[in-house]
Each structure stands twice: as C-alpha cells, then as structure tokens.
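Thread: assembly with ligand

MN 10:42: here's the input set. Chains plus the small molecule as SMILES. Want everything predicted jointly, not piecewise.
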Amino acid sequence: MVVDYLIIGQGICGTWLSYYLKTAGYSIIVIDESKQNSASKTAAGIINPVTGRRIVKTWMIDELLPVVHQSYTALGAALNLTAIEQKNIVDFFPTPQMKLAFNERYLKDQEYLSHPDNENYFHSSFNYDFGYGEIQPCYLINLQDILPAYRKKLQQEKALLEENFSLNDLQLSADVVQYKGISARAIIFCDGIHSFENPYFKNLPFAPNKGEVLWIEAPDLPSSHIFKKGINIVPWSKNIFWVGSSYEWEFENDQPTEEFRERTLSVLKHWLKVPFTLLDHKASARPATLERRPFVGFHPLYPSVGILNGMGTKGCSLAPYFSQQLVNLISSQLPIHPEADIKRFARVLSR
Ligand SMILES: Cc1cc2nc3c(=O)[nH]c(=O)nc-3n(C[C@H](O)[C@H](O)[C@H](O)COP(=O)(O)OP(=O)(O)OC[C@H]3O[C@@H](n4cnc5c(N)ncnc54)[C@H](O)[C@@H]3O)c2cc1C
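BT 11:07: finished. Tokens for the full assembly:
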C-alpha cells in the first residue's frame, strides 16, 4: 500500500495531524495500539488561558484560542458531536494570599478574569472561606467522545492499523519509508512519551510528568463550571466528575497510587458539602519538555522522519495549532514557530 504519510499514535496529536493532512488532500495511515492510560485518555480537556500563582497568560494563548475554537467546532461537525464547550473556572481562593494575588492581577489587567456578583453562590455545595474569582473564557474539550469517534472514522476509511508499531520493521531512505508493506513519503511520530525512547528523538530534552486522576459520582454537584481549589473538579458526564490532578517530575511508573487516592479523597471530604462516591482512578505520564515548548518538525539528518510531540500539560490547545503548522510546512514550506521547531535542537539531534 502506498500513502503520503504514516503517523504513529492516535492521541490528540495524531488525531489532529491526520485530520489536517487529510484536509490538505494527503493520504495517511495511522498506527495506534490503543493504550488505555495514554495522556489523551486521562486528560480533563481543560483550556485555561491563565496559569500559575501570579495568574499570567499561558504561552501564545491569544493566537491559540481562535484556532481552538474554529478547529474543534469543525471537528465536532465532522464527527457529529459536541467537541468544545465553554466552561469557566470558579477559582476558590485557598488562602488570603491567593485572593490578594488574584485581586492585584485583576486591578492591573482584567483580561480573562472576573469577580462574581455573589461570592456566596456556591456555599450550598462547597466549603470555602476566602471567596472566589472567575477565569473566563475557559473551554472543555470533549476528548472522551472525540478520540473514539475519530478512531471509528479512521477504521471506516481503512486508515487505521491497531497494533504496536516496532522500529525494527521500519526501513528509511531520504524520501521514502517502508513499514510492513506500507510505503510513505515520511513517518511522523505522535506517540507521546514513547518518543522518549525513540533513537531518532531520544536526545530531545523531554521531561515526563506524571498525573493522577479520580472520577467521582456526585449527583448534587453543579456542572455549570470547572471548580478549582488546588485541584480541579471537572464536569465529565451526567453526575460524573473528573478530579485531579497531580504533577510529579520524579516517578517510578505510570500507575495509580494509594497515596494520591487517599490524599484527594480527604481533600474532597473537606471541600464538598454534597455526597460523592469514587468510581475510578487512573494515572498517566504527560509528554512534557524541559523548556515547556513542543517538539515539531522533521529530523535534520533523516528528512523522512518527523515528530509532533512535547505538548506537556496543554495538548488540547497546542495540538490543533501545531498540526496545522506542520501541514503548512509540508504543503507550502511555511516555517514552524521557532520556539516549537525541532530545528533548535539540530546539534543534539545530529549527534
Ligand atoms: C492527568 C492529566 C491531565 C491532563 N489534563 C489536560 C487538560 O486538562 N488539558 C490539556 O490540554 N492537556 C491535559 N493533559 C495533557 C495532555 O493529555 C497531553 O498534552 C496530550 O494528551 C498529549 O497527547 P499526545 O497525542 O502527544 O500523546 P498521547 O495521548 O500519549 O498519545 C500517544 C498515542 O500513541 C500510541 N502509541 C505510542 N507508542 C505506540 C506504538 N509503539 N505503537 C502504536 N501506538 C503507539 C498510544 O497508544 C497513544 O494512543 C493532561 C495530562 C494528564 C496526564
């Protein structure tokens, strides 16, 4: 079989890259083994325009938000589902200092922040002592429906191989790659943390970060917002909420721990005034990078080997934007954003 591009991985990166390649008229095959605890299958899907204790704007958010809106709306229409929904964050201040930081930032710049009309509004569901602010607009990406629906579409188009990709079966030349009877112009790795062991890319400064999550059932909890107080409570489906997550730079494996479960349940018991039951507990490793910027482009020594990775904690907003950039590079030789282009690592990749 001859196709234009072979893509490894159908997380959020492989989904968007294959979508934009097909939209630009290229033929593709995606190979994905369907790992149950991939980052994309564990993520909440939040797009939050601000970050950190000082509530600064997240990297490139002003450019990303219009793309996010347009791309997920189009994907939702293609898959016949709601892919994106505005869900603002109610940011309960855990300390008076955090309230002060929010107010100071609000006085300087009101973009993305607002104060509620009635600070007592959520007292019937939550315990909180220092009030709250609102972060808006925030979005929730419906990954739980998008990923399987897009997978089904790939299956119907006979563009998906559900198996483990092995580098042992890959043969390369400058302008063609061969893999088990498939011939393509290039192979592009969208395989999340698995790229860390890939001999072509293992010298990139990856920094995997583990996150754990609980799912709870809480019929009396409002689903109007994402609720934040150290951790996030995110409306998932009817009466079900995603609760997380942890950020660990040092870890032995990507499995759930009793320590996280007990700590988070204890936080919930103090925070929630409504009853809840624990449904599930998962963990995954985020494909994060030391300088918190993505890895996008083609290998300097092997031009038929590409990568779209390193989305860290922000795969939902970065993946559509940088998939478009990679397709624009392929089709029109337009440059990738210099902070994301793997050209910046040409020396380490050429070792
Ligand atoms: C707990 C947690 C919460 C998060 N919350 C958010 C959030 O709210 N918002 C946000 O924007 N981001 C969030 N993230 C980050 C986000 O999940 C990642 O940035 C994003 O999912 C990375 O997508 P990816 O496609 O690069 O990798 P992955 O999702 O890991 O996908 C890689 C795919 O490649 C496949 N694969 C790998 N190797 C092979 C192989 N050899 N053969 C076949 N298939 C293979 C895997 O099966 C997988 O399907 C969160 C992450 C975690 C862990």
